[in-house]
Amino acid sequence: MSDRAVRIAIIGAGPSAFYAAAALIRQEDVEVRVDIFDRLFAPYGLVRYGVAPDHARIKSVANLYEKTASDPRVRFFGCVEFGKHLTLDNLRPLYDMVVFATGAQSDRSLNIPGEGLAGSMSATEFVAWYNSHPDYVDLNPNLDVEGVVVVGVGNVAMDVARILAKSHDELKVTDIADHALEALKESKVKNIYVLGRRGPAQAKFTNPEIKEFGQLEVADPVVKPEELELDPDSQKAVAGDRLTRQNVEFLREYASRGAGDKARKVHFRFLVSPVEITGDGKVEQVKIERNRLVSTQGGYLNCEGTGEFETLDAGLVLRSVGYYGVALPGVPYNKKKGTILNDHGRVLDDEGELLPGAYVVGWAKRGPTGVIGTNKKDAEETVALMLEDVKNLRRVGQPQDVAEFLKTRDCTPVLFDEWQKFNIAEIERGKPAGRPRVKFNTIEEARGS
Ligand code: NAP
C-alpha cells in the first residue's frame, strides 16, 4: 500500500492552492497525486476574481498555475463545493492528506449605524461584481450618485477607488465584466472619498497603487495639506521606511497640485472615521469624525475620536477594511482571526491537538495579508511539514477515485480540459474589442457557448 503515490486533496483553487501543488510536484522524495477542488467553475481564485481588471500584469501569474494544473499528477475539479458535494468525512477515505486553501471569503464590518442601508456594501462584493464572480453578477451597485465613500486605505480600497475613477476608454481595454463596463460608462460619480482612520504614514496602500492616481485620464487626486502633517511618531516611521516615505511624498505632491480641472476627484482623507451612515432607506450621507493618533504601549499608533464631525454627501459606501475568513463545515475555526486553527499549516482541533492529515495554506492559514507572491513561501512552509509527516502517515486503503464519488453527489465537475476550452473561448470573445478576454459570468453561460 505504501508504494502507491500519496493522494492529496486541495480545497480551493486560488494562488495558495497552486503554490502548494507546485511545491508538492516539484519535490522528488515522495510520489504524489494532487486533486484541486473549487466551488467555482474557473480556477485561480483571487487572481481571476480579486485582482483589478486594469492590473493585467499581475494576472499573468496564472500562466504558472496553468503549468502546474497541466502536470499529469495534478487534476482540477471545478464546480465542486466543500460542505455540499464533499465533506472532510467524505475526503478521509479518498485521500491521505487534505489541504485547505479556501482564502478569506467574507469581509469585516464597521459596526456603525446605517451600515445596513441600501447602497452600503463591502468592497469585496463590488470587486467580485466587476470581476464577473458568479455570485455577484446581479449586485447592481447604484452609480447614479455623485458621491462615493470608500472606507480604508489598503490596496483593495485603491482598486475600487481607481475603477470608479477611470474613464470608459481606460476600462474598455481590460477584462472587466461586461455588466460593470456598461454600468460604469453611465456612472454619475464625481467625488470619491477614500477615508483613512489613521495618518498618511499608517496607510496600507503600496507605492505603485497611490502613484496611479496621479495619472488618471478623467480624475484628479485631491489631498488636504493639513491632513498630511505628521506627529513625531509618524515622522520617525517616515524617516525609517523608504516605502512609507514614498507614499507620503506622492500624497504631498498631490496636495501641491490643488484641486485640478478633471471631472472626477478622488479625495484622500486622513485621520477620519465614519461614525454613521444616514439616508431615507438608502445611503445619502456619511458622518465622519476627526481622529487623533495615540501611541500604545507596544508602539502601535492607534486612533481616537476628537468629537469634531463633518458630513459627506454620498449615495454609495464601500467598506474596504479587510477580508475575513468564514468557517468551513466540520473544520476547526479561529473566529477572532477568521482562519482555520493551525500551527504553521498543520490543522489543529478545538483542543489544540493535531488533526492528522489536515493542512492549511494562504489566507485561511495566516489571515488576509500580503500580496499574491507571499502565498508561495507560505504554501512551501506547509508542504515541508506535509513531507515531514508523510513518513508516519497511515495511508487509506484502496481509495475510490473521487470522480466516481462525485457521480453519487449529483455533481458534474469542470475538469481542466473543459476549463481550457472556456479560457480559449473567453480570449476569443475579447479579440474584436482588443480586450484580453471577455469572461463568462456563470458555468451555464460557459457551457452554453
Ligand atoms: P489591508 O491592507 O489590511 O487594509 C485595510 C484598511 O482598512 C487599513 O487602512 C485599515 O486601517 C482600515 N481599517 C480597518 N478597520 C477599519 C475600521 N473599523 N474603520 C476604518 N478603517 C479601518 O486590507 P485590504 O486592502 O483588504 O488588502 C488585503 C491584502 O491584499 C493586503 O495585503 C493588500 O496589500 C493585498 N492586495 C494587494 C493588491 C495589489 O498588490 N495591487 C491589491 C489588492 C489587495 P488600519 O491600518 O488603521 O487598521
Question: How would the blueprint of this fold be written?
Answer:
Layout: E1 6-11, H1 15-26, E2 32-37, H2 45-49, H3 56-59, H4 62-69, E3 74-78, H5 88-91, E4 97-100, E5 106-107, E6 120-122, H6 123-130, E7 147-151, H7 155-165, H8 168-171, H9 178-185, E8 191-196, H10 207-212, E9 219-223, H11 232-240, H12 242-257, E10 264-270, E11 272-278, E12 285-295, E13 301-313, E14 316-319, E15 323-324, E16 333-334, E17 339-340, E18 342-343, E19 346-348, E20 354-360, H13 363-366, H14 374-389, H15 402-407, E21 414-415, H16 416-430, H17 443-447
Parallel strand pairs: 1-2, 1-4, 2-3, 4-20, 6-14, 7-8, 7-14, 8-10, 9-10
Antiparallel strand pairs: 3-21, 5-15, 11-12, 12-13, 16-17, 18-19, 19-20
Helix pairs in contact: 1-4, 1-14, 6-7, 11-12
This protein binds NADP nicotinamide-adenine-dinucleotide phosphate.
